[in-house]
Design goal:
The structure is a single chain. With 248 residues, the protein is α+β, with helices and mostly antiparallel strands. Among the domains are: 34 residues; 89 residues, Homing endonucleases (Endonuclease I-creI), CATH 3.10.28. Helix content is 42%, strand content 23%. The protein contains ten helices and eight strands. Strand 5 and strand 6 form a beta hairpin. The radius of gyration is 24 Å and the shape is elongated. The mean pLDDT is 88.
């Protein structure tokens, strides 16, 4: 958990006559750990952590993968070997927050998750040492600044459960809206409304994962601009309504 240089620094502070309490407060290291280093400075050898198997709940994983690629991030524990998975969910969609937490609990082997309120959104958070293995798209920098590609086992899950993946992406970076237009027919001005879906992402790779999956399930789409996918055809919207629906 702590490297040898950190251990030596803590022991050096104790050797100066400092109390364990004061060294613990300054370094953030527990008194028990500092006390144990006085007897043994070198860390005990660790066995390599086993690589986790792909999640058995493949349906939920496909949905959580979509959420992660849209609004998720993984960060290391500041003083330990584990990682945090965080999914940002807007306050406007309490049902989405519930669904996100349920999915994270289902995939996290500890079956735990919690919420952190921020201004305008909630971070749904789960702690697990091996999140980077379950979401290997994790890496330094922003997603749109690095290559995003699915591993073969992830692609197999998405192929089996494409609608859950699409739903996760829509819930993270998509929306269902109602457009309207006016037409004059027989001298009468009438208003017409029609629904459509949009998906926006700065990563061209994530956009392609979304559109490839739409092709797989037979949803017609077009690019409204380089970072915005539009689904407006009546049959395509009907399919999306059946399997995805609006946020709630």
């Amino acid at each position: 958990m702590y490297d040898v240089s950190t251990r030596k620094r803590a022991i050096a502070l104790v050797a100066q006559g400092r109390s364990l309490n004061s060294v613990s407060r300054e370094t953030g290291i527990s008194r028990a750990a500092i006390r144990s280093w006085q007897d043994r400075l070198e860390p005990l050898p660790r066995m390599a952590a086993p690589f986790p198997d792909p999640p058995s709940d493949r349906v939920t994983y496909s949905y959580l993968l979509g959420l992660y690629l849209g609004d998720g991030c993984i960060s290391p524990h500041p003083r330990g070997p584990g990682h945090y998975l965080r999914i940002a969910c807007a306050d406007a969609w309490p049902g989405l927050i519930d669904a996100c937490e349920a999915a994270l609990r289902a995939i996290n082997p500890a079956h735990t998750a919690y919420r952190v309120q921020a201004v305008g959104y909630v971070s749904v958070v789960g702690y697990y040492p091996h999140w980077p293995h379950l979401f290997p798209q994790h890496g330094p920098g922003k997603k749109h600044e690095r290559r995003i590609a699915l591993e073969a086992w992830q692609q197999a899950i998405v192929h089996e459960h494409p609608w859950e993946f699409v739903r996760g992406l829509i819930h993270s970076d998509g929306c269902r809206i109602t457009n309207w237009t006016e037409k004059t027919i027989d001298g009468v001005r009438k208003r017409y409304e029609y629904p459509r879906y949009f998906f926006s992402n700065l990563s061209g790779d994530v956009i392609r994962l979304f559109t490839d999956t739409l092709d797989h399930v037979g949803v017609e789409w077009k690019m409204a601009n380089p970072r915005n996918v539009s689904i407006a055809k009546r049959a395509a919207v009907a399919l999306m309504d059946t399997h995805v629906g609006p946020k709630y």
